[in-house]
Design brief:
This protein is α+β, with helices and mostly antiparallel strands and about 240 residues long. The protein has a single domain, classed as Thiol Ester Dehydrase, Chain A (Roll), CATH 3.10.129.10. It contains 5 helices and 11 strands, in the order αββαβββαββαββββα. The structure holds Palmitoyl-CoA. The site of Palmitoyl-CoA has 19 residues, from helix 4, strand 8 and strand 11. It comes from Hemibagrus wyckioides.
Amino acid sequence: MIRSCLKASRTFISHCPVALSHDAVSQPVLVRRGLSMGLWPFSASPRDFSLPNASWNAEMRQVYDHYTALCEVKTEDSEETGPWHKLPSYNRSLKHAAGGVYLSKLIQSKARLFTRNKKEYGAAFEYVIFMNKQEKRCVCAFQAGHLLEGPPGHVHGGAIATMIDTVTGTLAGYLVGPVMTANLNINYRSPIPLGGVVLIHSALDRLEGKKIFVNCRVTSTDESKLHTEATALFISVNMGHLFGM
Ligand SMILES: CCCCCCCCCCCCCCCC(=O)SCCNC(=O)CCNC(=O)[C@H](O)C(C)(C)COP(=O)(O)OP(=O)(O)OC[C@H]1O[C@@H](n2cnc3c(N)ncnc32)[C@H](O)[C@@H]1OP(=O)(O)O
């Protein structure tokens, strides 16, 4: 069983955008693997859910174009990489999931990332995350679909919390490797209209041993309106923790 867990974790590791070296199962060592996902095991060309689609409104597209331009600085001679990176986003993390420790094969095969479990464009979580590793921060453009309604015409607080957990967790994971959320503190300041686009800004506050403290602000795209503020604590875990070992 331990061998199958290790195999599962290695499969997982080798397909993370920011992954650990193979001998990092018990001792994380960060290895930047770039954004290529060419060896993805589930299909020849997995869908990157963070690419523009027909459901994106003009504001969402505008933010995407703005940050994409900051990713690629083209000169006459060469195409340099800017300080920002667009992260790809897939709906499955694991082929073998928890190595059979907890999950039945049926559940393993059907498991999907919560925020990417709708095939219908625009129905729920449309988002794209841009990472700035130098500044240890990221920005997410989030367009909330009609299935995320809470108060009439506005986004459900749980859906907002999900996105905050996702963005802050992605930042923490990008910077230090596998993490789990230990604490999430949220203040809802003003409601987010359904179908609207907001920016979710997240930055590293500090690292204390295994603890990663991250802050987060959800604002309008022009940043004039504050919708939500949050702080999050993530704990660095080894792959064994994720697989119940
Ligand atoms: C792997 C990534 C793959 C990504 C690829 C797919 C891409 C898509 C990206 C989407 C990104 C989504 C990101 C979502 C991430 C979740 O939503 S995770 C799910 C929700 N979280 C959980 O279920 C966590 C459940 N809790 C646990 O497993 C364990 O309690 C923890 C949090 C891992 C900590 O356990 P532990 O390692 O034994 O830590 P422990 O030694 O007890 O404590 C370490 C330190 O932290 C402190 N601490 C621990 N808990 C707390 C707390 N709640 N409050 C304050 N301090 C605390 C302790 O006091 C201690 O402090 P020091 O004494 O060192 O000063």
